[in-house]
Amino acid sequence: MLRISSLSILIVLLLSLVIESPHEVPALDEPLSTVVDDCSYNENLAPVEDYLSLLNISDPYLGEFDSDVTVIEFFDPNCPHCATFHHVMKQVVEDSGQHARFFMVPFPLWQYSLLQIEALFVAAQEGKYFEMLDAQYLHQKQGGMSLEEVTVLASDIGLDPEVFRQRMERGLNQRSILERRSKIVETGVRGTPSVMINGRFVASDSKSCVCLNELIAAEVNKG
Predict the structure, then answer these.
(1) Total-model pTM
(2) Which of 9, 43, 58, 92 is 20 to 30 A from residue 64's alpha carbon, by CA?
């Protein structure tokens, strides 16, 4: 268990009020609006003009950082659909990484996901964010992972387990994780995985390699 401070207790109490249970996450109706062939954006969620404000300067990314096309995936490491979709995103990064920059931003659906999200940012301090995410998806389990389990993952991906555990116990990323979650909620996101391209949310039926690559290409061509 993480060491509990008064700040941690306050954060957990606040989180219990804002994080919905998986049974309370409303389904999003997503009528299609053709943009590129049969690939489309979600008409029910308004475009987010200041979408870059959802990113932090230290967020790890994949692809071409100087690109004018920004792809953001919102995920929960304990979401089964996110684990499946992760393979799609990895292929899209491989296909379109030279044309866009990709950010994978955690959006906790459950309180128990906070520990694993903390582990992602602790791993990021050593340049191992995506390796930790891969490992968490590979070992995904109902109810989330314990500190001992994520520490084993840290060791598996080449991190010093003692240093990792010490950083985890400080819980320094909890406040920023929750603050960003609140900002993401304001955009209309209620479930994961959700994907936006330059501030526009991709429709559920278009979250395929083919469609994501086509939508990215359309944004590149606008430039």
Answers:
(1) 0.85
(2) 43
